[in-house]
Write a structure and sequence with these properties.
The structure is a homodimer of 219-residue chains. The first copy, chain A, is 72% helix and 5% strand. Chain A is mainly α and 219 residues long. Chain A has a three-stranded antiparallel β-sheet. The two termini of chain A are 28 Å apart. Chain A binds a DNA duplex (30 and 30 nucleotides) through α3.
Chain lengths: 219, 219
DNA sequence: TAGGTCTATATTGTCGACAATCTGGCCGAT
DNA sequence: ATCGGCCAGATTGTCGACAATATAGACCTA
């Protein structure tokens, strides 16, 4: 997710990005312990920057920390997934509602163009869509809400966890095209400046996504 | 807000609590810069623990940090208040809805008892209610949602900001008794296991609170 | 005088060492 | 044999010093 396109300016930030990626992609196994000394040698930085990186991971809810004990990567449970998606549904539903009011016409135009690009990608059968494409779509709508708190909670707070579930459960399959249609309808509602419909469609879209993930988690 | 009743186990945690309180209560002025060296001498700890404390304050959205520049206390703007309460309305509305389903009968009973206690406090005319009492009320409902992500976002994330607005704008006045009635109706909806009504009443309650705060901010 | 560069200073970022605390295993008592 | 306390090792928390970066002001130039 280099959508924010922010280059790490400090060593702690770079270590944070590296660690986050390794956790999201499962290189560091869910539930495993994060030893400061170990990571310090692995990423070739001092323990202080590892501590700072871990501290930021805690903000993303990717790790949990106990005083004088240490940090562990969160483990993925069905209950956690349900809780996460309850919150996501509410927040992104609000984002879609606000976006229908607050997005500028040029931004909406860009959103439509993004959709057109995705359409070609889907037709060509690439799996790329579900990962970066989907994230990009949701990202723009969240930004379109123009609510900085909302943006922060979603992107600094829970989005990496959502990615973690998706990546580790392996996203692909028949939902790709139907998800695209759902995206299309959401964009149409936003283009029509219909906040209530935009929220409802977004909430359903996320519910479908949750159900899809749940079925994979239970299998 | 010692509802969580968690004693600081480490120096960084204690410094975090102290700093947070000073910021929320306005002892440290909104918008002011947080100098690590200065705070280090003031709280009599090393710069490392000050840095950790500031890092945690960033998670609460109480301070903003820029690399190689430093941290500043957030400043309170009308726009920020609106954004904050949009998010709060959505999240606490969800909390009330979930609480109506997930709270146990004993927990609901305790909630009713809390309300009875508040009634006496309101009658006696103490201002205590609006601060700790109100926070306690909302806290229990949030916990009653049984959704750990939601609980974390609200309590580790935005509740201290809400307190900051309330404390610094000076809460008291004629809304005390009407707010109590709103609380009473919310508890009734939860007792009746009526999720939709509970959510609607909570959302309205928070809207009223926002309007009340806004009028103070504009004056 | 306006604009830009350069330097001095202050502040933040990073490091390695030491202190405090937890964990797991050993030993003894009942 | 089981339970509890206790010791050793390892891990996290804290500290002060050093390095890297930004900021403000002086100085120079056009």
């Amino acid at each position: 997710m280099n959508l924010t396109a922010e280059a790490p300016v400090t060593a702690a930030e770079k270590t944070f990005f590296d660690l986050r990626q390794d956790i999201v992609e499962g290189v560091i196994v869910a539930g495993s312990k994060l030893s400061e000394a170990e990571l310090s040698t692995k990423y070739e930085v001092s323990r202080a920057v590892v501590r700072e990186a871990i501290s930021r991971l805690e903000t993303c809810h990717l790790v949990e920390r106990k005083a004088n004990v240490g940090a562990r990567v969160v483990d993925l449970t069905p209950e956690g997934l349900i809780e996460l998606y309850q919150v996501r549904e509410s927040l992104e539903g609000m984002a879609a509602r606000l976006a229908a009011t607050n997005m500028s016409e040029p931004e909406i135009e860009e959103l439509n163009q993004l959709l057109a690009t995705h359409f070609k990608t889907v037709q060509s059968g690439e799996t790329y869509y579900q990962e970066a494409g989907d994230v990009d779509f949701h990202y723009r709508i969240i930004l379109g809400s123009k609510n900085n708190h909302l943006i922060s909670i979603l992107y600094d707070g829970i989005y990496h966890l959502i990615r973690m579930y998706r990546v580790q459960l392996g996203m692909a399959g028949p939902r790709v095209t139907t998800a695209f249609d759902e995206h299309k309808n959401i964009v149409k509602a936003i283009s029509d400046r219909d906040p209530e419909l935009a929220e409802m469609l977004m909430r359903r879209h996320i519910q479908y996504t949750k159900n899809n993930l749940q079925s994979k988690l239970e299998s």
